[in-house]
Design goal:
Keywords: Membrane, Transmembrane, Transmembrane helix. The chain crosses the membrane at residues 44-65, 72-95, 115-141. This protein is mainly alpha-helical and 187 residues long. The protein has one domain (2-152). Helices cover 68% and strands 0% of the residues. The protein has helices at residues 2-35, 43-65, 73-99, 111-143, 153-157, 178-183. Helix 3 runs antiparallel to helix 4 (111-143). The radius of gyration is 27 Å and the shape is elongated.
């Protein structure tokens, strides 16, 4: 009974930490878009991706508490999309910085270079949070076997809540002492 309670508490803490991390990272991304006046990922794209992340988080909670590993895959996919989006934004602004003809090739200590450095460090910091979220989803997927996702809840509860393990079991009845069965008959 105590181990079931501890397992439930661990799942609850993981779910709460994952939710808080998801909300805090999305708020930080919104503030980065506003603070850096980013035009490449439009705020509408950020909002749509955030809603998809919330929906995949709900599937992740179902996967976590009902031990259905494959339902954690949408969280992994949305986090991978978010990480790729950050990589694209970073590459876009670095290329944009070096394509600017007003920037001299030497002494790049201007405000624009500091802006790109701040943007890059902020994006890498937030991307690490999304890597952690990706790992939470992947660990849930790896922790719970795939076969549990395909068990029908109807078959579990069809006979009054009694779940019978599949497969046959063989019982061997020995009509002799165990020592004789294992080592042979001794004189």
């Amino acid at each position: 009974m105590a181990s079931n309670l501890m397992c439930f508490l661990a799942k609850t803490i993981l779910g709460l930490v994952t939710f808080l991390l998801l909300i805090l990272l999305s708020a930080a991304e919104y503030f980065f878009i506003e603070a850096f006046f980013l035009v490449f990922p439009p705020p509408l794209l950020h909002a749509i991706l955030f809603l998809i992340e919330l929906l995949s988080f709900l599937l992740f909670i179902h996967a976590l508490f009902n031990e259905k590993g494959p339902l954690a895959i949408p969280l992994c996919v949305t986090q991978a999309i978010r990480i790729l989006l950050f990589a694209g934004v970073l590459i876009y602004y670095i290329i944009d910085y070096f394509n600017d003809e007003d920037v001299p090739l030497e002494h790049r200590n201007s405000n624009r270079s500091k802006w790109v450095a701040k943007l890059g460090s902020h994006l890498i910091f937030v991307a690490m949070g999304h890597v952690l979220l990706f790992y939470c989803g992947w660990a849930c997927y790896r922790r719970f076997p795939q076969s549990s996702a395909y068990r029908s809840s109807i078959s579990k509860h069809a006979d009054g809540g009694q779940f019978h393990p599949q497969g046959t079991h063989h019982v061997i009845v020995l009509e002799q002492p165990i020592e004789q069965a294992m080592y042979g008959k001794r004189p």
